[in-house]
Amino acid sequence: MATYPYPLFSLEERAARWQRVRSMMEREGFDVIVAPNNSGHSLDFQADARYLSHCGGGGDTDIACVFPREGEVTVAAKDAAERWLTTQDWVADVRDTDRRYGDVIIERLRELNVDRGRIAVSGMGPGNRTPEGTIGYLQMKAILDAFPHTFVDCTSQMQELRSVKSDEEIAFLTKSTELIEHGIEAKVSAAKPGALDYEVWAEAIYAMIRRGSELPTHYNWVSGPTSHRTLSRPSHRILARGDRIEDELEASWQGYRSQAVQPVWVAECDPIYHDLAKIQRDVFDGIMDALGPGVTVRELLNATEHAVRESAPASGPLAGCTANLTMHGRGQGDDRPLITNPRSTSRYMDLRLEERNVFILKPRVQTANRQHTLTWGDTVAIEPNGARRLGTRPHDIRVSEA
């Protein structure tokens, strides 16, 4: 039983999740899965280890997991017993690595007698945002030297499993969305002329972490009079009347991270954006109407194009508006699909979405001359008869008080 009070998944969730994973292993002929440690990309690259073990959290915490088709699950970590026997109740076999994770992985694989078995490694092959994989070269080389037979990659299989969320996972993502909306309100309140960009960002982050959000979380942020592309962090500029803050905010509830996009103008907003917001809302709603189990990404792209054609006026500055479908999986890591640019989208054109897929939906609309753009987004879950937003805030732009 966990000593320290953290949000935890139930033992029933563990049983159901492990059964799903082991059924996949039986189907694929995997004897064991190795999920390596990699705390990159706001812990995205370590999602499989945390998904299998319920161990993890904290920006510099490396967790590796050895998950056999039969037998006890093992976690390899620094300060293992002190940190992971006291903060979760899923895994009892936690072993200290002294930062040499490969040694513990090899030790456990030898205990499992898989010398001639099929060892599957998550992150040995390409993932959504990791075309070069996520396992370190020296760690993989040590495992190969110890077990000189064929290894197989299971990155795509783990992606498929993690993309279908349980009731408990969706509840955690709903809580994450709730925290984000507190962050948005704090951002709007702080975004006044003369405020420091970093301070506005800090108010948004504080509003989330004071309610229990873990760090690290992903955030992109930019402010300015003509800002269109977010930067990797806020700047030291002073906000001026008419500036726009563009960002992507995430909160982490036991590693589960929803996302929201909420543009905010400082004190005043060019009226064209109010009109553009109506078109963006129509596009978002048109995509939501098309969403449901079995729909393909290709069909959603068609729905996006149809919605913007129907909504854009025939004349005036908004005539000829275009829209781009942007969506990517939300959960404990870098979940599929990744629909952000033509290259990434091409891999998923015929992917059929499933019930309980969860993703950020954030279509962008822009004027024909590309001088005005607008993005708004919320985390969405697919249900048996359609899709549902996890957030509750109004779908509109926000303008702060002077």
Fold and architecture overview:
Helix 7 packs antiparallel against helix 8 (197-209) and helix 9 (271-290) packs antiparallel against helix 10. The chain is α+β, with helices and mostly antiparallel strands. It contains eleven helices and 20 strands. It has two domains: 11-163, Creatine Amidinohydrolase, Chain A, domain 1 (3-Layer(aba) Sandwich); 167-399, Creatinase/methionine aminopeptidase superfamily (Creatine Amidinohydrolase), CATH 3.90.230. A six-stranded mixed sheet has the order 4-3-2-1-5-6, sandwiched between helices. Helices cover 34% and strands 18% of the residues.
Entry summary:
The chain has 402 residues and is α+β, with helices and mostly antiparallel strands. It is built from eleven helices and 20 strands.
